[in-house]
Amino acid sequence: MAALDAAQVQGASYADIRLSHRVQQDLIVKNGRLASVSDDTSEGFGVRVLVDGAWGFAGSARLETQEVEEVVRRAIRIARASARVQTTKVVLGLPVTSKGNYRTPVVRDPFAVPLSEKVDLLLRADAAMAAVAGVTVREGSMEFLKDRKVFASTEGAFVEQEFVESGAGVEATATNEADFQSRSYPNSFGRQQGAAGYEFIEAMRLDAHGGRIAEEAVALLTAPQCPSGIKTIILDASQVALQIHESCGHPTELDRVFGMEAAYAGTSFMTPDKLNALRYGSREVTITADALSPTGLGTFGWDDEGVPAQRTYLIRDGLFVGYLTSRETASVLGQASNGTMRADGWNRIPLIRMTNVNLEPGTSSLGEMIAETKDGVYMETNRSWSIDDKRLNFQFGTQLAYEIVNGKRGRMLKNATYAGSTPEFWNSCDAVGGPAEWRLWGLTNCGKGQPPQLAHVAHGAAPARFQNVRVGILK
Amino acid sequence: MKAIESPGLTEATSLRAFMEDIIERSPADETEVLITEQDGALTRFANNGIHQNVAERNATVRVRVVKDGKTGVASLNQLSAEAARGVLARAIEIADLQTAGETVPLPGPAQAATVNAWFDRTANATPEERADFVGAICRGAARHGLKAFGAFSTSGGQVAIANSKGVFHHHRGTQAAVNTVVMGDAGSGYADRSALDVASLDGVELGEEVIDKAQRNQQAEPVEPGVYEVVLEEYAVGELLEFMSYVGFSALALQEERSFMRLNERITGEKVTIWDDGLDLNGIPAPFDFEGAPKQRVDLIREGVAVGVVYDQQTAAREHRQSTGHGLPAPNTEGPYATSLFMAPGSVDKSRLADGIKRGIWVTRFWYVRVVQPKASIITGMTREGTFLIEDGKLTRPVKDLRFTESMLEALAGTVALSSTTKLQASEYFGAARVPAVRLQRFTFTS
Q1: What confidence category does residue B1 fall into, taking pLDDT thresholds of 50, 70 and 90?
Q2: Which of A10, A272, B175, B409 is 20 to 30 Å from A221 by CA-CA measure?
Q3: Which element (helix H / strand E) includes B179?
Q4: In this structure, how many other beta carbons lie within 10 angstroms of the beta carbon of residue A335?
Q5: Model confidence, pTM
Q6: What number is the ipTM of this complex?
């Protein structure tokens, strides 16, 4: 509180301070041995100030009174420098005065689970992969995170939160002279992660899936190439999650829309003139930003501006109806923030980040979608992803694919890719799986901002089907 | 500990005493202490005004212990005596919880070169100086009816590593970087610069380049996707090398049969020579790696022939050879990484690279590049902020950004010419590449 008082005395019209203490444990088992275990702790504080309508921020790991005073002075000086090159003054809208506590619900604290239990599970999964001839590299990993945060502002907000995350995954790779194929479970990007305790890991049953993915990796080496053409495609839920992330989550970030990320992450085709007018997708497509979803990596009590967690619509029955916003950007549209500002640690400013951006469940099922498809490709687990800076032109690849012929799953296919343009693609969606196949997928590698920040976000998704999609893109 | 050398950084002798104290206290058979410390600031601008402006001080101490054949690693971003005891105890605790396995050998003492990569004026750059620098870019854009966006960063940092075999290395360096996009109503341009010395960044020249690019890149029309002869500016070539390093230049990738490198075989055109040199001040130097091994220059591709990959302690031990000084911080299962890349220039002035191209594409930069098939070195990505049609050797009009899907090796197999000058391209995350602009005979645009 002394820091906030000092900031006001030095001319800040608004100031906030965030303290964070984050512990992360990582384990990797590779080729039958424990390859690494590490515990990393990062703690510090960051002070954000508004002076003359311009932002300044400074942070330090040195938790000493003298350093707090120095950091406040630095933030104030930076804000005054910002004001030298200013086109519009920042307006935050109505004050935010949130108070309270939030803790991730946890059944088994992952930091209390013996290391031997974690390693043993990874080794069992490794042994299952090792039993398959032809697998050349096996890897399994776990990550656990506990972040205690305190936020206070000159408007009177004061919230304390404790977040716990647990994640794990396994991957099998098979190689020959010409090729290299990998399969992973439950997801790619190293692991599946959730805001939960060790029970989240236990539910994955990594050891039960090791053998299957190993067999698939070996089979992919000799599988035929995914054919090129225009096809019906069915995506598994994890690939739908990434599709949501790249082609709906990012373009609805209002800071991108206003050019605040233009020199790095890019802008957005979803400009304000399209709000409540753009037919983004078919009527099957309803997408929400829901910071209240259980086990979601984007679930919290309050965002890093103290705004309460909430559920809002981005796309409703195919129509573009909302953005992810902050206090500053929402004010420009005459709205209140819907609470999506999060920072990657004490030493970064909060940015608009996806919370849990979810494709709401439909009424179909994977089995029904396949049975209804004459000529198509089923694709599973992301392998590559790329999209342009306005979030229109995309190309994705998956680890595994199967041809679909006359309503039945056919041959395994390798190196499957598909490409398209965002609204055209989502408008071609004619089926989404129901609640039984819907789940949250946690992503821990969402990059944005300068200096770069990585956010942990989640996407609820079920398998979905899309018509007339270009597949098998070859060089 | 006393901070004297520059704002926020700890004195080197204090760091050494701090690290040696941890090593002396350690009951482990082998102990390594790695400290990274940084004081940096970044001024970000959009729509011709500063909208984000940040600074931070941070330091991390990372301790690796090997005890009875078991390894433990812990880190903490505090440099107090209490923190040192805590992080050592946690590393020992982690090691004790394990069963014995393969350990990564720690290097012994070896002389690392001293590289002067520190410039006081970069470390001491003020927020006012950064604001004035970006203000000039913004005003320049506004004068032309355009809008500027970007970021300007200055930082000073240091790395120190010590181990129980007697290794101690210390290096400090500064870095300044600016990138900017300038937009008009119907198109945009891009430019960036990086340097150790902030005074060598020429904001006027940068502004002229990006404004010129933005003015020429308005009202772009599409062209048919297909195979084109291309000129890639240094921005695109730097990203290409970064992906080659990520996919193929590591000994681990080769040992695990994931790399496209086929040693002693021709894999690109003979005009292509690429190496890694952590001691060259024309890059962003780092005289030793994060395991304490001195950096060696490593030739990777010489006149089109794959001749080498980079090693860390573990991959070198497997082949009974010395590390080349490319190890990452422990624990590391990703393998070594080449971070100081250089590509040999050619003899053609950059402005003449398009000469003689009947119909081709000029690419300013790539965006969102990802690996599609690593062993075939196939990547995909978009062009961005300055893609032009070349007709009869001239850039005739801007074209809509294109998606490419291409094998890096096959593209470089058709290297026709390289510019006589090179440019330093700092990586978004780690390391840098000094590269020329290149002209390639065939490049596949897929949409």
Answers
A1: very low
A2: B409
A3: strand B168-184
A4: 15
A5: 0.95
A6: 0.95
